[in-house]
Write a structure and sequence with these properties.
With about 260 residues, the protein is an alpha+beta fold. It is built from 7 helices and 10 strands.
Amino acid sequence: MQGQSQQQAYDRGITIFSPDGRLYQVEYAREAVKRGTASIGIRADDGVVLAVDKRIRSPLMERSSVEKLHKADDHIGIASAGHVADARQLIDFARRNAQINQLRFGEPIGVETLTKDVTDHIQQYTQIGGARPFGVALIIGGIDADGEPRLFETDPSGTPYEWKALAVGADRGDVRDYLEENYDEGIDLDEAVGLALKALGSVNDDALRPEAVGLATVGVDDREFSQLTDDEIEDSLVDLDLLADENAVDGDETTDDATEE
């Protein structure tokens, strides 16, 4: 009982380390990320791909209100998993910093620079009393000025990680295992789109609906963030034999809270 009460005491203070060096509120924020539906990022030789599971819990909900893919700048896209409101705050912060860099230096911001600006902002909320960590993880992908594709993850602790391919949100472990088994060096953008859809399908009974999937790419050639349409996604699902039967009934949703996507 005494050990449990001590842990609860450390739970209440975001700025206080437990005796074993843990910040419990940061760990709980990571659990909030796991409650969100999956988001995937894949780096290819000629661009980056962002894919998200954006299943809608009710036919009465407007599909456009489910926001998991975001344009931070012309050459940078962001996918999120976790608390939607927290994600929106960080997306707005990233967009402001991208525009400030453009106005101040007359050039687009680097992908790594923007990622570290965001993670520095996140980290501040692990040291300030009266605040809480952001319960969201972001996948930030884009093309640097030298034409190099970059792909990063932000953690609720404020730590940035660079990846070749990654997943955040629900089923992260299963999706990451699939990516580790099937990702190849030298993959091109079209192959990365297919791999992202297959990875999502691997945790959805190999059956996806175009309206329940979001896909975006940033190519080396044009350095432009571009979201695929439902028709383009459907064509890809048909080619990969992943298109769900229209008469199939959706399974249980990953989250039971409208604030988590």
